[in-house]
Amino acid sequence: MARNQPVYVCSSCGGESLKWQGQCPHCGEWNTLTRVLGVRVAGGAGSAAHVGASQAAAGGSLPAPVALAAEAATEPRLELGMSELDRVFGGGIGAGAVSLLGGEPGIGKSTLLLQVAAAVGASRPVLYASGEESTQQITQRARRLSLAAAQLTLLSDNSLESILQLSSERRAALLVVDSIQTMQTAMADSSPGSPQQLRECTAALVRFAKQGGTAVIIVGHVTKDGAIAGPKLLEHLVDTVLYFDADAGSRYRMLRATKNRFGPVNELGFFAMTDAGLREVRNPSAIFLSRSAQAVPGSLVMVARDGGRALLIEVQALTDATRFSAPRRVAQGVDANRLSMLLAVMSRHSRLSPAEHDVYVNLVGGLSIAETATDLPLALAIGSSLEGTALDAKLVAFGELGLTGEVRPVPYGEERLKEAVKQGYTRAIVPQQNAPRQAIAGLEVRAVATLAEAIEAAFRA
Ligand code: TYD
Ligand code: MG
Q: Exposure string (b/e) for 441-458, b if CB count within 10 Å is 16 or more?
């Protein structure tokens, strides 16, 4: 049960009192109680987030719930200058939120965060602390990116205590720490980058964020094979975990939230690395379509759904009469077992049998899609390659295939169709149950119940 009444929260231990007192009854500190307008949760075991509640247990009393979260929620979130970023963070960053940005070295983490720091720093105090680059290097980069921010402070230091001190002095709304692997706190005596340092530094940053309301973004380097211990170790300490990723050699970057206490997970943001830093990509479907004006056999556009949005992705298939005793099957961006199953279904339930063929499939743009909606478009692309016949360049498809050759529905059918129309496609082959209730202007939708029907529809002259 929640009652609306002011409570007093100790800035030292987080302990909660019902009336103002000069000394905190929980930890004994003086002049640390401040009034918080919030919701006090009575008998609140398992209730809303309680900052510092465990520390408040000292002194024998029950852990006192603290209602800081209620107040933080009413504070405006920091907008990050790019809507693709705000989207991944779940609508900007809240006060006191701690985020971890992981990614391979060189992917663009520092670039992105310098841009973020400058965007926020236009109106709020921001500290960008780097243990990797000198302030001169960072200033040069900022100049090259034409970034200017009235309230952005740069610091080159790897002492966490110095960084926290400066951040408090500046009353930073946002603190960027680049990277956690270079930071050192006096609370641990091991060297920077050691598990102990990583943990202690991160824990100290979390305490700092929660006490003062500073939003913190921590950079953590990771390698593809996870060789550098780090971010994995820290994920449970922070509120939001983001990973920055790229298709090898591509200028496109994808930012995905794999954990988010304040917003949706798996949200995807798209960016392009340019001479002028990272630019958001507002129409990401364009990234995954390599189609030349001329339609070629083995290619079809599917409508996938990933990161909370419908995406058009070109599916490519290449089939070749096998010269091996067991045909080769290679899958890029889709599950290899799923491909095997699909090929078996095709052999058994359609006139296009890939049984005697090597089969290679690929999703353009380097995204991996785990959803079953890829089944039908893959089968049609493989069929197109087998036949040597190009499919309609304005055709899209999505749908799951069952083992008996039936086409099964997938979630968000309408949303997928709307994205297809938006991108200029005029025909769609979809599962029967995904047929739109009302006709969609500009789109001819063919709803099918079986793979055989889908193939007839796709190869119709
Ligand atoms: P960086 O942000 O330093 O990566 P990280 O912090 O993840 O290690 O980015 C490194 C790469 O980005 C570098 O190879 C150069 C490239 N880059 C651009 O292409 N354009 C730019 O405007 C900037 C600043 C960097
Ligand atoms: Mg960097």
A: eebebbbbebbebbbebb
Residues 239 and 156 in one domain: yes
111 close to ligand 1 (CB < 6 Angstrom): yes
Q: What is the pLDDT of residues 344-377, one digit of tens each?
A: 999 999 999 999 999 999 998 888 899 999 999 9
Residue 295 is part of a domain; what is its CATH number?
3.30.230.10
Residue 123 alpha carbon to ligand 1 centre in Å: 25
Question: Which ligand is closest to the CA of 108, given by its number?
Answer: 1
Q: Are 37 and 114 contained in the same domain?
A: no
Q: From the centroid of its chain, how far is CA 308?
A: 10
Asked whether 406 and 399 are in contact (CB, 8 A), the reply is no
d(CA 111, ligand 1 centre) in Å? 6
| Average pLDDT value for residue range 115-134 | 96
The total number of structural domains that make up the chain: 3
421 ligand 1 Cβ < 6 A: no
Structure confidence at residue 278 (pLDDT): 95
